[in-house]
Design goal:
By secondary structure, the chain is of the alpha/beta class. The chain has helices at residues 2-6, 11-17, 29-39, 68-75, 91-98, 118-123, 125-134, 137-152, 187-195, 209-218, 262-266, 289-294, 297-303, 317-328, and strands at 22-25, 47-49, 59-60, 63-66, 79-82, 86-87, 103-105, 177-181, 201-205, 225-228, 231-232, 237-242, 250-251, 255-260, 278-283, 306-310, 333-338, 341-343, 348-353. The strands form four sheets. Strands 10-9-8-15-16-19-17 form a seven-stranded mixed sheet, sandwiched between helices. A six-stranded mixed sheet has the order 3-4-2-1-5-7, with helices on both faces. It has a four-stranded mixed sheet with strand order 11-14-12-13. The longest helix is centred in the middle third of the chain and has 16 residues, at 137-152.
Amino acid sequence: MQKSLLSLPTVYERIKQSDKPLLLYGMGDGAVKINNMLSSRGIKPGGVVASDGFARGNEFLGHKVMSFDEAQGIYGDFDCVLCFGTAKSELYMLQNVEKRHTVYYIDAPVYGDEELTKELIVSEIETVERVYDLLDDKSKRVYLQNLSFSITGDRRYLEWQDDDFVYPECYYDHQKAHIDVGAFDGDTAIEYYNHSRTFGKLIAIEPDERTYKKLVANTAYIPRVECINAAVTDKNGYIRFASKGSRGSAVGEGYEVKTVTIDQITGHQKAFADGMDVGSIKIDAEGFDAEVLYGAVNTVCDLTPTVSVAVYHRAGDIWRLPYYLHKLCGKYKFSLIREPYILPAWDTFAVAFLPCK
């Protein structure tokens, strides 16, 4: 595995090999972050291009935002770097652009400044390879695809298959509690309920005040549901939270919200405590996924529930978080599942489970 990954050209090497003008495709925070990543490597985009309807003569990063036709008239042929997330349903849009131009895809971190580069993989290669060995065959493919994409910026590595987002049955098939961390407006709690009517209790936790109200309203019909307005971290107390009323809400500057740990919620604040019996946990905590796990040590070690944790928010989480769970419980099997996104490899989750429970 190491040899195949380290032989790949980086996206920055590919860009530098081209003699065509390079334009940013898209605006917003993602474009600012990608522009900074390029600049730190001595690559300076020559302009900004946007899809029809978004290019209205406005300016971004000191450049007039051009339509593709306008840019073509000025530069002729050019390369571009995509600067926004794109779902599989929008693949046709990218394919139309790729018919005329080379498009690069830079895997900018959703949170934090650390980048998932070849150098980072090399620096933690023992853990990277250990996690690879823990995965089933399908998950090994997804794992290598995600890492190869992050290195090369070639979206063809993210080709999706129909079974790439299938949870193991033990995630649903139990009569214990299910904990949903980062429940948003209830969409994942509803999805869980539709798949499993046997759970003992469904605890949905959401820190954003506005979204929490939607969560309560949307899940009111679900039996045995409990909604909690709090941020889940590795300690109990309070933390600043930046509310956006969307999935982009995250810990940061803003108002204070209460923090809880999974161990506090389950009553397993001490090892082997007589607390709640938990069968499954979903963690999608917008960059605080590791901290959520740190606050669930006793619950995980005592009960070995099926744990689904997001591994796409921060660079390195795709191997660091599964390895952490492996160290907590060496009996866990691991699967890597991924929603059908094109760029970047968003909604990728590591699932730790005991098949025979």
